[in-house]
Structure formats: C-alpha cells, structure tokens
C-alpha cells in the first residue's frame, strides 16, 4: 500500500508540471497582460516597461514558468494586478465553491445512487424506463439552460428561491445552484449505478446471500451495492475536479462569487497570475481526488490489493 | 462539466479505471473483470450458414430499434436544414428591425422576435448549421487524432504508450470549460474553426484511451497472433486485422461525444468565447435572451429547445449504436 501510494505520487509529478505548463503557455499566448492595466488607453511605453520588469514579464516564458513554480512551492501565488494577493482571493473564493461542490456531490450520491439502485433492480419496468428517459433529457439539456430555466421558474416566477446568491453564499441559498451543477453528473451516476446493479444482480454471491435467508435490504445494501459501487466511486471522484472547474457556468448564472467567478474575471482582465494560480490549485484537487479514488477501491473491494 | 463524461456505461470499467492512472488500469486487467469483451469478430452464423459480421448484425438490430429510427430521422432533418436552411426559412437571419424587438409571435414569424428585432424562427433554423458543423467536424477530428494516436500506443506499447498515457493524464487534468475560456478568449474570429480546433485539442485523449484499450484487447486474439506468425507486416496487421475489430468502441464513444460537443459549443458561446456575434448560434441567442427572460421568455425557449432536441438526438443515436455493437447484450 505504502509503495503503491509513493509510486502514484511520483506519477503525479509529470502530470502536475505538464498541466500547469500547458495552462501557463495558454495564458502566455492569451495576450499582453499589461495592455489591460492602463484602462482603455494605450500604456505609456516607459510605464509599460517598468510594469513588465516589476512583474517579471520581460523574461522568457520558461524563466517565468520556473520562477512562478518556485514561488508556488513557498506558498506565494503572486499578486493580482490590482495589488490583491492571489492567496487572499483564493481564501474567499474556494470555501464558496467547495460548499457548492459538496452540495452537488451530496445530490449525486443520495439521488443518483438511490435512483440507480431502484431502476437497476426493476430493469425494464415503467419506473426504469421513466427514469432512463428523464436522465437522457437531463444529459441533453446543457447546464446553462437548466440553470436559466430553474432560475426563471423558481426564482422569478414562483419566488421560492432568491434568483441570485448573496456574497456570503450560505448553504441554503446554494441548494438549487448545487442541483443545477450536479444535474448532468447526477444523470450519469444514475445510469452507471443502474447498469452496474443490473449486471451484479445475477451474480452468484447475490444468489448465495438470498439463499442464506438474509433480509432483502441487507442483500441489496451490503452485498449488491458494495460490489456495484466501484465504477460509481470512480466517476464521482473524477467528477470532483470537473465540478469545481465547471462551476464557472453555474456561478455565472446565479452570481456566486466563487472560483469560477474569480477565474472568469481573471480571464476577462487578462490577469495571468490569478488564472494560473487558481487552475494550479484545481489541478491539484483533481489529482488528489483521483488518488483517493484509487485507494478507495481497496476499501470497497477487498480482492484488490496494492503491492 | 458534461464534456468528459460520455464514457458512462459505454466502455465498461476499462475506460473508467483508466481515469485514475496507469496503476488502476493494470489492475483492472489483472482482475479479469474488464477488457474481456471482444468487440467484433464473426460470431454466430446466419440461417444459410453464411457467417454474419458484427456490422451486418448491428445494422439488423438498428433497423428494428425505434430509438434509432426516431433519432436518425431528427438528425437527418437537422443535416438537411443545416445544408439548405432556406428550404424552411426564407428570411435572412441577420435582417433585423429594432422596432420589432422582443415582440411575440405573429403570422409569418411564428417564434416572435429577439432583443435586436431579428426573427427568432429564422435564427433558430440557421443555428442548426453551426451546431451540426461543430459537432460533426470536431467528432471527426477527435476520432482521427485520438484513434490513430491511441491505436498506435496500444499496438506498440512500451515507451510510446507510457508517454501517451501521461499526456492524456495531463489533458484530463484541465477543466474543459476553463480551458475553453483561456484558449478562446484571445481569438477574434467569428467562424467555427477556433471552437472546433479547441474541442479537438482537448477531446482527443478521451478517444485515445478508448482506442488504446480496444487495440490491446484485440491484439491478443488468436487471429492476430496467426497473422503475425504468417509473417504479416505491422501495417497489414493493423489495417486488416486490428482496426476493423477494434473500431466499434471508438464509434460508440464518438457518437455520444458528438452530442456533448454541440452542448459544449453552446456553453462556450453562452460564456461569450465560443462563436462571436455575426455568427448565428443557439448559444449566442440563449445568452442574449437570458437578459430579457422576464419579458420575453420565447427568446430563450426556442433556441434552448432546439439545442436540447439536437443533443438528445445524438445521445440517443449513440445509445442505440452502443446497444447494437455491444455483443454482451445479445
């Protein structure tokens, strides 16, 4: 187990550097970050040169990348061009997005897996067909359309929720945005669980458990579900990173000031330090989630051993 | 984000465990739970004793599948109107009259007018062209690039394979919408090409993984070993023996991905970085409509409905094709 973790951590290193370099290059070609600093006017050449030297923009891209990475490992994510520390921006933005993601994941787990189990055990019945069609529709309607429609109906027409979330973003205001963020993944979790349950329901160990006279509930939860959850856990694990990155759309619709909002602002204002910093953290989250998922396999399925 | 997800049940846990990293993938093979299904190969013989191929079997299944017929007809309709939109819309989508802004439906303008006074019906019809073009062209690009690179990695294995696996890991680490914002925000072009280029750039690793896994499975089959023993060259083995039998999972994932690419284009256009205004796109129209949604919901509902039906049709087609091509369900 220990050796496996170390091997995986070593494998993460090239991925981490590759991803951050890719984003760094993208941001670098994104345009001249100084141009946005003087408002709509053209910058005075002397001022521009001074700003360039101040932010280290006069060096080569490799030099910039290496010194940026060096700073990150000392916890210095740089300063946004408005003078605010990027770490300060993160401290306000990440808790909000993490709350939103947690709400979304809870929806995925509770609703997705329950629906998957119910439909998987009743394959071909009306409830199964109904849920399957529903998931198809949810997958087909893009998140921003779902979000806008829910905002229109629940927020504007019926007044059940506030159409835009306040800047502190308390948990109760995040329920509907969380559902919107989760919607597509929720449909995938349902379908994945359904397939997995339906496949395993005919397995020998399930028949044995039933033959032993175990109550149905115990057969389903302890035997069937535990064995069927591996692909689902993989999906949810990799989804954590995707949800945090994909929150841009949801945060834009409901005006939530989280990671997506900061990134959107950073990109619009060509604020490379903010963009690269936030993306770096998101990549780390994604990699860590993947590692945890792989370790969870061994917990869920004792047949899997990591040497 | 929807874009990375079409590998739900499609490919079994071969692709799923691959999402972790190399380690998990080896493990799945050792467990013998996945990658066992052989996509293709002649199986079953017809009544006349003539062996039927996987493809003719699949085609027979598809013709009887109502889901395939319905989604196929919708897609056929979309393709026709995206080539000849003037067949059903005789106006110009860019011919707008501000005086009619946000007005509801009236004879000759069944869907009403948008915020600029453009005819919503005409714009919705013309929007199909963008979506179909982006979907089809990016799927072709992604399948070619991903299929070839993934297939070669699976065939040759070794260092090539390790490098490719790490590269796909790198691309998987980038959230798609975010990458799109960064990458496309500099592009000023109002054509579909930058969006297609971006989707191909970030989409190919997904297909490469599927193709790699599929080729590794097929490579171990007896007929490939026999061809090798008979002295077939690498290129002959790849083209004659492996490619036809390994391509089914790639086609399935690519068909489902087509729908998600259309959805991605609309999302990027909604965020203002996909297609830019003189272009006609459902994403742009939905984005514009979201400001007026309280007064003129028809502006939002028509393009959004068209988008949803289109994506749904492609996903249903992918589902039907998967059911037909997956021998496990027979």
TrEMBL record, chain A:
This protein's UniProt keywords: Cell membrane, Membrane, Transmembrane, Transmembrane helix, Transport
Residue spans crossing the bilayer: 12-31, 96-118, 130-154, 174-192, 224-249, 275-300
A Pfam family per the record: BPD_transp_1
Matches recorded under InterPro entries: BPD_transp_1_N (IPR045621), MetI-like (IPR000515), MetI-like_sf (IPR035906)
Topological type in the membrane: Multi-pass membrane protein
Domain of life of the organism encoding this protein: Bacteria
UniProt name for this protein: ABC transporter permease
Automatic annotation (TrEMBL), chain B:
Subcellular location: Cell membrane
Domain of life assignment: Bacteria
PROSITE patterns: ABC_TM1
Annotated keywords: Cell membrane, Membrane, Transmembrane, Transmembrane helix, Transport
Entry's transmembrane regions: 67-88, 132-155, 192-211, 246-264, 300-321
Residue ranges of domain ABC transmembrane type-1 in the record: 128-318
Coiled coil: none
Keyword Magnesium: no
Gene3D superfamilies xref list: MetI-like (1.10.3720.10)
Pfam families: BPD_transp_1 (PF00528), OppC_N (PF12911)
Membrane topology, as annotated: Multi-pass membrane protein
Region of interest called Disordered, as start-end residue ranges on this chain: 1-24, 33-52
Family: Belongs to the binding-protein-dependent transport system permease family.
Name assigned to this protein: ABC transporter permease
Source species: Streptomyces mutomycini
């Amino acid at each position: 187990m220990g050796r496996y973790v170390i091997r995986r951590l070593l494998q993460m290193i090239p991925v981490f550097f590759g991803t951050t370099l890719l984003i760094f290059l993208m941001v670098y070609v994104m345009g001249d970050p100084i141009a946005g600093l003087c408002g709509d006017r053209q910058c005075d050449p002397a001022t521009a040169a001074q700003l360039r030297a101040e932010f280290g923009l006069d060096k080569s891209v490799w030099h910039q990348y290496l010194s940026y990475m060096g700073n990150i490992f000392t916890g210095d994510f740089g300063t946004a061009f408005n003078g605010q520390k990027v770490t300060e921006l993160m401290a306000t933005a990440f808790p909000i997005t993490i709350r939103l993601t947690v709400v979304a994941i809870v929806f995925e787990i509770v609703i997705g897996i329950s629906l998957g189990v119910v439909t998987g055990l009743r394959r071909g019945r009306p409830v199964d067909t109904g849920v399957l069609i529903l998931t198809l529709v949810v997958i087909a309607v893009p998140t921003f359309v779902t979000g806008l429609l829910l905002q229109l109906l629940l927020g504007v027409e019926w007044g059940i929720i506030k159409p835009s979330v306040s800047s502190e973003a308390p948990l109760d205001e995040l329920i509907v945005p969380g559902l919107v963020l989760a919607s597509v993944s929720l449909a995938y979790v349902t379908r994945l669980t359904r397939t997995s349950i339906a496949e395993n329901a005919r397995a020998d160990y399930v028949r044995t458990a039933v033959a032993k006279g175990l109550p149905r509930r115990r057969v389903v939860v302890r035997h069937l579900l535990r064995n069927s959850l591996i692909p689902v856990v993989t999906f949810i694990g990799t989804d954590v990173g995707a949800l945090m990155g994909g929150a841009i759309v949801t945060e834009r619709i409901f005006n939530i000031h989280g990671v997506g909002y900061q990134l959107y602002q950073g990109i619009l204002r060509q604020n490379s330090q903010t963009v690269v910093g936030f993306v770096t953290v998101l990549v780390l989250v994604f990699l860590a989630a993947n590692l945890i998922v792989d370790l969870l396999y061994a917990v869920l399925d004792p047949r899997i051993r990591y040497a | 984000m929807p874009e990375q997800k079409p590998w739900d049940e499609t490919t079994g846990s071969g692709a799923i465990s691959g999402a972790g990293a190399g380690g998990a993938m080896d493990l799945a093979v050792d467990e013998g739970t996945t990658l066992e299904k052989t996509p293709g190969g002649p199986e079953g013989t017809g009544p006349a004793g003539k062996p039927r191929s996987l493809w003719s079997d699949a085609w027979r299944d598809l013709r009887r599948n109502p889901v395939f017929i319905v989604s196929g007809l919708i897609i056929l309709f979309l393709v026709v109107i995206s080539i000849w939109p003037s067949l059903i819309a005789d106006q110009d989508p860019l011919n707008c009259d501000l005086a009619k802004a946000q007005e509801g439906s009236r004879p000759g303008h069944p869907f009403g007018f948008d915020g600029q006074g453009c005819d919503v019906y005409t714009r919705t019809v013309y929007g199909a062209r963008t979506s179909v073009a982006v979907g089809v062209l990016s799927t072709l690009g992604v399948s070619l690039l991903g299929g070839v690179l993934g297939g070669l990695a699976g065939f040759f294995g070794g260092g090539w394979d390790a490098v490719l696996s790490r590269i796909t890991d790198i691309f998987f680490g980038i959230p798609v919408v975010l990458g799109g914002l960064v990458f496309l925000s500099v592009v000023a072009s109002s054509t579909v090409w930058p969006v297609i280029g971006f989707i191909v750039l970030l989409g190919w690793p997904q297909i490469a993984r599927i193709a790699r896994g599929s080729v590794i499975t097929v490579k171990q089959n007896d007929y490939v070993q026999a061809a090798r023993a008979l002295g077939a060259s690498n290129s002959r083995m790849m083209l004659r023996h492996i490619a036809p039998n390994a391509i089914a999972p790639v086609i399935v994932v690519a068909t489902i991905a087509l729908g998600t690419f259309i959805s991605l284009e609309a999302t990027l256009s909604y965020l203002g970085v996909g297609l830019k205004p003189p272009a006609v796109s459902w994403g742009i129209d939905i984005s514009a409509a979201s400001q007026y949604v309280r007064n003129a919901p028809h502006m939002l509902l028509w393009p959004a409905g068209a988008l949803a039906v289109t994506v749904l049709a492609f996903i249903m087609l992918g589902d039907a094709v998967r059911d037909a091509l997956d021998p496990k369900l027979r």
